[in-house]
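seq:
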Amino acid sequence: MTDHTHLLLMQMHERELNERIRHRRHGLTQHRTPLRSLTARTLHRLADRLDASHARRQPAHTSR
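struct:
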């Protein structure tokens, strides 16, 4: 996983946690989906796609 991909994943995770906190503060506790496993799978799929995309673009960046 590249540093850029890792940063994106951490930002997504932080947004998810902030959303959960907001829901709890406002009494929206019925929003209890199994986000942890769903999010983990989604984030790993996204990471794979971003890494593949980055790898395809990599040769163009070496000419700088």
